[in-house]
């Protein structure tokens, strides 16, 4: 196994806990989706960061999925990687469930002079946008959000989200190039930090 995590000084117990979480992800309802996301990040990583070719396919999956769980905070990388957004519109047109804050439901319905229940619904304990596939505010003609200035917080911080374990991680959406490149860059940061910690450069394969 690659010495990446050892060089970073990550304790074996933390690593084994993170691997258990990855296994739970893979065995959950979104397991297939998560697997595709990790594979897509791995492929992107190999393209933009040749030293990653030193790892076997299974090591690469391990590194990417563990970084997804215990990698650095994403916001700074998200800011730096903004240009990775292709404007494909997936995040507004292909989502099936868009969870929003209750405060947003009040603010937006007031601003639009609509009854809250007409545009938002309670789904279990979550407030969601009623029309979410595509989002009712997505304009397919120009790909823009029709309430951009008023959009919910969840849209403002995309692709940052809360996973099923209540961790703040990048949304596992293989179709979103922005999400994929944010995680790929988290992995690069981890690999470079591990190289520095080991005091040796990883040579391209
Ligand atoms: S899905 Fe991702 S890449 Fe596509 S428009 Fe949304 S943020 Fe950009
Ligand atoms: S509210 Fe706007 S930004 Fe949010 S999903 Fe709908 S169209 Fe996209």
Any overview of this molecule?
The mean pLDDT is 91. Helices cover 50% and strands 10% of the residues. With 205 residues, it is mostly helical. The longest helix is centred in the last third of the chain and has 22 residues, at 177-198. It starts with a helix and ends in a 7-residue tail after the last helix. Strand 2 and strand 3 (126-129) form a beta hairpin. The chain has two domains: 4-87 and 176-198, no CATH class; 96-160, no CATH class. It contains ten helices and seven strands. The chain has a three-stranded antiparallel β-sheet. The chain has a two-stranded antiparallel sheet with strand order 4-5. A two-stranded antiparallel ribbon has the order 6-7. Bound molecules: iron/sulfur cluster (SF4) (2 copies). One iron/sulfur cluster binds at residues 92, 98, 135, 137-138, 145, 147, 151, 155.
Which key features would you list for this structure?
mainly alpha, 10 helices, three-stranded antiparallel β-sheet, Puta_zinc/iron-chelating_dom, 7 strands, 205 residues, two-stranded antiparallel sheet, binds iron/sulfur cluster
SSE order and pairing:
Layout: H1 4-7, H2 12-27, H3 31-48, H4 57-70, H5 75-80, H6 90-93, E1 99-100, H7 102-111, H8 116-119, E2 120-123, E3 126-129, E4 138-139, E5 144-145, H9 153-156, E6 160-162, E7 168-170, H10 177-198
Antiparallel strand pairs: 1-3, 2-3, 4-5, 6-7
The protein binds iron/sulfur cluster (2 copies).
